[in-house]
Each structure stands twice: as C-alpha cells, then as structure tokens.
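Reagents: none. Just compute today. Acetyl-CoA synthetase-like protein.
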Amino acid sequence: MASTEMSTPKKLWEHPNPRGTEMYRLMGEINEKYGLRLETFWDLYQYSITQRSQFWDQTFQYLQLIHSGTYTRVVDESAAIETIPRWFEGVHLNFAENILYSRAGASSKRGTKYKEDAKLALTEVREGATEIRDVSWGQLRREVGELAAAMKIHGVKKGDRVVVVASNSVDTMKVFLAVTTLGGLFSSSSTDMGVQGVLQRTLQVTPKYIFMDDFAIYNGKKVDLRGKMKAIVEGMKDAPGFTGMISMPRFSEPADISGVPRTQTVAHFVSKAKGSPPPEFEQVAFHDPFFIAYSSGTTGTPKCIVHSVGGFLLSSAKETRLHGELTPDSVTLQYTTTGWIMYFVSVVNLLVGARSVLYDGSPFQPDLTTFVKLIGDQKVTKLGTSPKWMFEMQKNGIRPREIADLSHLTNVSSTGMVLSDQQFEWFYNEGFSKDVHLCNISGGTDLAGCFGQENPLTPVYVGGTQGPSLGTPISVYDSLIPSGQGSPIPHGEPGELVAPSAFPNMPVFFWNDPAVSPSPDSRYFNAYFAKYTSVWTHGDFVYIHPVTKQLFFLGRADGVLNPSGVRFGSAEIYSILEGGEFPEVQDSLCVGQRRPGDEDESVMLFLLMNKGHGLSTSLVQRVRDAIGKGLSKRHVPRWIFETPEIPTTVNLKKVELPVKQIVSGKIIKPSGTLLNPKSLEYYYRFAKVEELESGLVKRDNDHDPSYEPENLKKSSTTHFKRPLKILTAITSLTSLLTFALLITTYIFIATGPFTYTSSSRDATRDLAIVLATLTLLTTPRLFLPLPPLIPLTTDLVLAIVTLVFAPRLLDNGWPDTSFCYRYRPYDPSRGYQEPLPETRECVLARGRVRVMVCVGGLVGVAIGLLGVMMAILRIWGLIKSRFWEGRVLGGKGGKGWKGLGDGFEVSFTLRVVGPGERRGEERSVEGGRGRRGG
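Predicted 3D structure written out:
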C-alpha cells in the first residue's frame, strides 16, 4: 500500500500535561540557549539528530551525572559511524557511584538526596510473591562496600571480568555494583541456561571469578545447581586468570558445596575483608568498558558485546527520565532474568532514586493473578513486561484492573516481541486504566537501549512504538538492495532499520574479537556495517507510519517472509493469531522455507495447541480465513502444521531463524542460549515437506485441506509403501519379458508348422491381454511424470482388466485344458496340412505352459485387488478434499507419480482457480498426507 493511502490508527492515550514533563523542560532550555523555537517532539527529535553535539551536550548537563574532568568536544560529527567515534573525551566517572549516590552541586560532588539511608532502594520478591525482602539505600551502600573490599583483597582490579550466574536478586545486584566500583567488567547469565551456553560466554571473557546461586526455583520447582556449578568449574579449568567460583545461597541455609572444586561461599569470601574500609570508586574514562552482554547465539557462537560506562549511563538516564518520566518517587518492576539485556533496566532505574522490585521466578505461579496482585501490593508505578504476559492475561480472560488496586500504576512497558494491534486494544479496553501510558519499546542488546520507544509528548496509537529515541538517528533502507550504498525509502514502505550516524551507546568493541574494531575483518564490523556503506544495520524489518510517524516492527530482517515477491514480517501473522479469535492456539511460529532448487519461498505456520485441543480441518480453515481477511490472500501460509514445542531463548523469546534454516535444508548446531534446544529436532522433517506422513495443508484461501491428523496418524498403509514399489518394479519387468516372449511365439506360429488348440488360443490371448495391460499401466508410472488424474484411471482400468481375465487364466490352466501345440505337415502344392496327433512333447509343453498360466492368473488377481484398493483410497482422498469446488486446469504431479506404492499416500496436486480469482492468480493446492505424487 502506498504511504499516502495509509489511514491514521486509533488514538488510545495522550499525556494529561505534556508541558510539565522533563522532556518539555529540556526542550525549553535548548530553545532558550540556542534561540530556537522547538515546539513538538518531532521538532526536538529532528534537532537531536541534526545537531547531535548540541543536543547531547545539553542533555549531559541536564541529567546531572556524577563525573570528573572536562571535555572540549562532544563527538566528531564528521566521523563515519563505522569508525566508532568517541564521546565526551576527557570525562571520567564510575557506574556504581552514580547508582548509589546522587549528584550534589559540582559535577564530582556526591550526596544522598533522593537516596537517603532509610529510604527503600530494593525489594526482593521470590516466585509467588513470597520471601519479600526490603533493602534500604544505606544498607545497599554498606553491603556493596563490604563486597567490593573483599573483591579488592582477592585481587579484582580495573579491567577484570566477573561473571554472575544467578537470579534477579539483591545478591546479584550487589555483585554488579561491587565489580563496577573497582572499575571491573560485569557479565551475567541466568541459572536456567545450560552448561554449554554458560561456557560459550564465560570462556570468551575469561573472568577472574564466577558468582553463582546454589539453588534456583521456577514454576514451583526447586532446582539444585551444584551439578551445574561443578560442570562449569570443570569447563573453566584451563581458562587463563580464572581463580574460582563463589557460591551464593538461594535460601536461608547455604548448600553444602564441599563436592564442588575451587568453590567457596560468599560469606567466606567476604569474611576476608572484615574490618576493611570500602574502596574508593575507580574513575574510568567515558568510553571505558564496564559490562559485557551477549547476542542470542542462535546461529553461532554468541558475540560478546562490550558497552561503555559513559555511553550506557547517559543513554539510560535519557530514556528513564526524559522518555519514561521516572522520578525518585517511582516504584519499578521489570520482569526479567539476568541473562537478558532488560536486567540492566532493573539496575539503572536506581539512577534517579526510584525503588526497584526484583522479581525472581515465573509470573504465572501459583496462578495467573498472583503477579498482578503483587503489582498492586507493592504500589508499582512502572511495570516492565512482555507481549507474552499480556497475551496470557488476555487469553485467560484476566483483567488486571479488576484483580488488584493498580491506582499507582502510570506506565507499562512491553518489549521482547512485537506487541500486536489487538493487544493494544485489549490493554485499554479490558486490561488496564485508560490513564496508563502503554510504552511499546524496541532496541536490543546491541545498543543496550532503544531505537523505538515511548515519549510523553505524542499520543499512543494502535500498533508500533510511539517514535524514535532522542539523539539516535534512524532510517529505513530498501532491504532488497543486498549491499553497498543503501537507499532510504519513503515512510509507509517496509524495509531494514538502520542508523546512519553514531550515537553514544554504541558498543565500544566485541570481547574476543579476532580483529581490532573497526577493521572490516572484525566481528563487530561484520555484525553492523558490512551490508550497507557507513550505516549501522540493525537487522529489524520495519516501517514508519507516514501520518503518525510511529515505528512499526514487523520482525527480523533475516526472517522476512517473501512468497512470490510479497514481503511481510512474521509479526503480521502473529497479530492475527493473538487477536483472541483462536483460544485453542497457545502460540505460533511462522517462518519461510526456500530450499536449494525451490523457485519461490513458501510460508510455514506452526501452531502450538492448548491442552485438550488438536489441529483440525475447521481450525485450519478459520486460521486461513482470518489471515486472508485481516491481511490478504497473499499472506496465507502455504503450509500449516501442529507442533509439540516452539523453540525459545531462556528469555522466552521465540526463535525463528534456526527453524527457517532447518526447514530450508540446513543442519545446524543448537545454541546454548535456547531454553529447549531439543525442540529443533522436530522441524528437520519439514525440509522434505512433500514426503511428510503428517497432514499437509494447502495454501489456497478458498479450499478446505485434506487434513485430519488424528485419523492419518492411525493409518498403517504407509508400511506397505516400500514392498509395493518393489513389487511394482518386479512385476513390470517380468511383464515386459513375458510379453516379448509371447509376441515372438505368435510370430513363430503364424509363419511355422504349428497350431494351438482352441482352449490354448483362448488362454494365450487372455494371458497376453493381462500382461500387456499390466505393462502399459505400471511401467510408465515408474519413470514418467503424469497428469494428476492418470493414477486413478490406471488403477481402475487395471483392476477391471485383471479381475475379468485372471479367472479365465486360472480356469484354462487346469489339467483338462489341451493347452499345447501340434505339428502341421507342409505340402508345397497345398500348404500346411491338418496337425498330427498329440505327441509326448505336447504333453510336456502343456505342463510347462499350465504352470505359467496359473501363475499369471494368480498375479493378475493380486494386482487387480490392489488396483481396487488404491482406486478406493484415491476416490476417498478426492472426496475429503472437495476438489470439485475449484476448476481443474491441469498441471504436472510435481516430481512425478512414482509407482503403485504411492497410491497409499492418498495425495494429489491440483492447480485451482477458486471463486473470485483471476487465472493469473492461480495458487497451488496441496492436500493429503505426503508426496505430491501417487
């Protein structure tokens, strides 16, 4: 659709007092300082990306970070983005100091305003809203100081890495702040990640220490982690610089770790520093590294993405205060694990003096309402969640605003997956108050921030994110251009999200990169800059609304669906399925399939069903109708299957790319970041989708599929497939040889001195007819592609001919038949004479021929019965498909109709023009159980 034809989405929310927001105040300061007349968010955004130095200078001053040193230049705006230009050179600061204290006057002076000793900083909550523990600012500062002192005594210093494998807890927070107090680098993984996944990351960053929980709890189950601790220590035995593991107690009683080598309890570790004063905050340069995050690693070794302390602090302060309106009175709850980039939101929310609620466990235990009640009980003002959580609320008919007192809640942010239009509507119509700001955000681990997010100056409309993030330039490039000089496309057209200019929170480098950034040989360069010249390629498939300027995320660019040249994102399919129309569907996965040799891409949709439901003909029809109506017929998947499990990361983000590669014929190594790596094994069968023995679902939107999995799975006919093919080949070959022999015999008799008796003549004729029919109807099917209705016709003809003539062969083969030849004397003047009486040779010949005739009759009956069975099955398959609803145009049977054995596949391929379609819009219709042939 052209951009000018797009309608304005429905408005859902608007800020009651935009002029009272910090973003508006910053805009006023910029106007006053530079004599400008910026009035709207879009004015401010355009200024922030065209005058980057001015904007970031003013923002840095406005946000009041604790720092030392001065700068003469914000950034070299002329530097290409791939050179990774440095920001605020000359500034030094410390992450932990900015979290634990607030600035008081001069840039380097710290105080405790909004972070007073008695004020609560953290609230730790375990699964099911149990074991609630409050921690004040004074207590947090004291305990972080003790742990930092212990780390210093144990040799941790600036630049050292410390890894945490733990839950979202106060203890994890203390490790983070203690490490960064000393100028070290923090990195974390969640406890539900497998040993391989942890080691894939940890071995790359070679930490000095690993802090790990001794137990975990999730979905009501207590998990002993000591076996995993032991395996990780064993995997780290040859890692340079690794000193040992520190065990953190998950429950009140620490686990016995005597069986885990090179491991001590955190209590023993800290006791070494008893009485030692807390160390000074190590001042590091603005661009110095302070934490390492990891890419998903779903298609290879995870990339170790290193972020700078200054870039992260500045960007996070901008996002939380200017975009998110966080204040010292805010109470935040970001649902996350420590293995996700959103964990750092739980930490950075402390920057403004807000209280952070750290939740560990499933938000669905012990029931779906407990987590909602916790939000009310803790008086949460800003909730961070995901579309998955909202979908579960919507699907189960839970209205959070009716479950708990959510009067304090002002903001709900959603990220991790695309938030569907239906969820926007549900949020305000049923889920939450119309006064709550729904903040749909998207960015990622790569920038530890957002490309698209909320803002208080523009309305919230249905779909997408409100707009871009201030100071972060974005554009949409034509994704059909494979490389080189990219081409921006107009608003309203989907393409690839790029950043054409540098921004402060770009990674500083990749740890363990074989080449130094920004070398073209580095993993960093190839991750972001290899596709288009001098722009950051983020890998998302997006478009910008031409009227509202919302940024719509349609899925990953490497997962774009492209059947017949029509490009769309999987999120468009998910939005239909998550609209509440399909309560029997728990989740879905939509990928493209294009194998070597495929002329076009096919769209595959996998449905995960709720308990008690199965994929049925009627459901498939409803799904296809809904997609066709809600999007277009071109969006309707060619194949729809039920799946037992959808692969996800440990952060519960569904994974598309590995499945896309698998169904396209590749063999991949599962990533350690997958929560359920074995789930990928199920999808390998779909690389040969035409040969599946589970239901195939056609793509055409006007025809019902021949798909009844509950019946098809019970069928045992496929067990005969291989024997029937062998029988067909042997019978056809024997028929050819025998038929050739009979023709030779007829020629010999017609020209020689022999004759047949009448019964012999009848038997020979019958045998010839059967063998000729068998040969003509079976042999071509072994080697030639035939029109789709030929197999049915040949089965019927073969059955009729053999069942008529085979009994006569059996009758003529019994002992009373004078089946032989007799010699006829030849007279030159009169020709051949009457045959002589029967001879001994005639008797012997009769015995040999009798055997041949009897065998031929038995084979004929068997082949005839098989033909009848196959004809019945074919007719049944066509009836189930209701093929007469379309007009048959002809066409070939795919790769050919391969023999009698395929007859038991009950399959067909028709090219159909349905009602209302033009001939130029023909669609392929596949039904049945497996091959296109047969």
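Confidence is low (pLDDT under 50) at residues 693-724, 748-760, 812-822, 880-934.
Action item: order primers for follow-up constructs.
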